[in-house]
Structures are given as C-alpha cells and as structure tokens.
Design brief:
The structure is a single chain. By secondary structure, the protein is an alpha/beta fold. 54% of the residues lie in helices and 13% in strands. It has 13 helices and 8 strands. The longest helix is centred in the C-terminal third of the chain and has 23 residues.
Length: 274
C-alpha cells in the first residue's frame, strides 16, 4: 500500500486471520496491525508474528485508522454498542465482514455519522482465493475505498457494488457459492464410485477437474458458456451429459437455490439488525 494505515481487527477468528495472513505475506507491517479478541491466549501466534494484541476493543479502536469488524453477527450489536464512544471520538473507517448486518443497524449501534464499508467475503479467502463484494456508504471517500479494496484483495478479488441490496446477490453468487461447488464435487465423487472408481481416485480426479476448469475460465477472454460449447463436441460424450443436466432442470435448480439464498440473506439482515 502507498499509505499504511493502522488496522484493528475486532475478532481474531478464521476470516480475520485469513485477511491478516494475506496482508502480512504481502509485506504489510505487522506492527501496524492490532488484533482484538476476548481470549488473549488464542492470539499467541499473532503476537509471535509481531502484531499488537489486546482483549480491549476500545484500546484497539483508539490506535486504528481502519477498524475491521470480524465478530459473529449474533454478537455484533453488543460489541458495536460497547465501542461506540471510542468510534465517535477517533472516527476510524469501519469495515464490517459480518454477514447480514445492514449499514443502518451498524450506524445506529456505533452512534451515527461514520464512514462504513460492508464486505461479503467467502471461505476461499482462507487459501487466498477469496471473492468479496464491497459496499460503501456516502461518508467513505475515494482514499478509504482504495484502502479497503487493498485490504480485501490480500485474500483474493474484491468487487464494488452500488447498492447495499446487491450484497444479498453477492451472498447468493460467491458468499454461499463455494458450498454449491462442494455439492457438485460430492455428487461427482459418488457417481464416479458407482461407475467403478475407488473413492480416492474419483475424489482426486474431481477436485483437479474443478481446479482446472476454474483456472481455464479465469485465464480465458470468453465467457464460461463459450468454454462449455468449445469442449462439447456434437453427438459426443460431453454433449450427452450436458443435455441430460439441462433436460432434468439443472439450470433452473441452480437459479432457484440462489434465489432462496438471496431471500434468506435479505431476511437475516432484518432479523439480525433488530
């Protein structure tokens, strides 16, 4: 980063650690990062890496230019209200990676008039292959948007959306998306076994095929639909499988599942924000 703001992570669980790990491996100074959690003994490894650690959220906020809220959504209200006075006094940029909690709720809990970014990451961030959706409220300036983007790209890609409601769509596509692929892989492994392969062979072939297909799509200048057409020879084996998937409604099943995910994401925002 051209500037190196001090970061404070409120909550030091898996997602926070994934982001921290990405930042440090990219050269971000560990001394510019605070990690705060209720159990200090769980952060001994972060201390050994040179991070500042504390169990006091207000201490971390007082030191930070950017505060990343990485606690569970169910406890975020209590955490935010406890640190509201410190946030109002120091006015850091707030970045929330808590699923479902709306900006309006966060702003209310933190006392209002804050620069706030909501982020919807996903679990592949743990292996630096994450995909995050970002939404900024009107108080976030261009420099803060850039800083947030650089923080989140430490674990993968980050894409801005113009409407907060679009984060529910991000949840349906990428936030919950890894589980869709795991289900597909699970089904392929089971089918491979039924066709006579050992589970180990079926699993390794399935995982490598998923990895290879994703890499091809990532490096290609055409859409996945065109890639599919290019590997589907007329009257061949792949075409027979694809036509079976289509005839049995796979595209509609996927669309229906993602709509259900979107609807639940929107409902959770209302439930958790009360």
């Amino acid at each position: 980063m051209s500037t190196q703001p001090t970061l404070a992570f409120i909550g030091a669980g898996n997602m926070a650690r994934a982001i921290i790990g990405g930042l440090v491996s990219n050269g971000y100074p560990a001394k510019k990062i605070w990690a705060c959690d209720t159990q200090l003994d769980k952060m001994s490894d972060l201390q050994q890496k040179g991070l500042n650690t504390t169990t006091d959220n207000n201490e971390a906020v007082a030191e930070a230019d950017i505060v990343i809220l990485a606690v569970k959504p169910q406890v975020l209200k209590a955490v935010a209200m406890e640190m509201a006075a410190a946030v109002q006094h120091h006015q850091p940029l707030i970045v929330s990676v808590a699923a479902g909690i709306l900006c309006s709720s966060l702003e209310q809990w933190l006392g209002g008039n804050i620069a706030l970014v909501r982020c919807m990451p996903n679990t592949p961030a743990l292996v630096k292959q994450g995909a995050s959706g970002l939404y900024a409220n009107a108080r976030v300036d261009d420099a803060q948007r850039s800083q947030t983007e650089q923080i989140m790209t430490a674990t993968g890609i980050a894409m801005w959306v113009e409407s907060e409601a679009h984060l529910d769509a991000v949840t349906a596509v990428s936030g919950s998306g890894p589980a869709y692929y795991f289900l597909m892989m699970e089904a392929m492994v089971t089918a491979g076994e039924k066709l006579g392969l050992s589970r180990e062979v079926a699993q390794q072939l399935t995982i490598q095929t998923a990895l290879g297909a994703a890499e091809m799509a990532s490096q290609s200048d055409v859409e996945p639909a065109e890639l599919r057409r290019r590997v589907t020879s007329p009257k061949g084996t792949t075409e027979r499988a694809i036509l079976t998937f289509i005839d049995q409604g796979l595209p509609e099943i996927i669309a229906n599942g993602m709509q259900a995910c979107y609807d639940r994401s929107a409902a959770l925002g209302e439930e958790l924000g009360k």
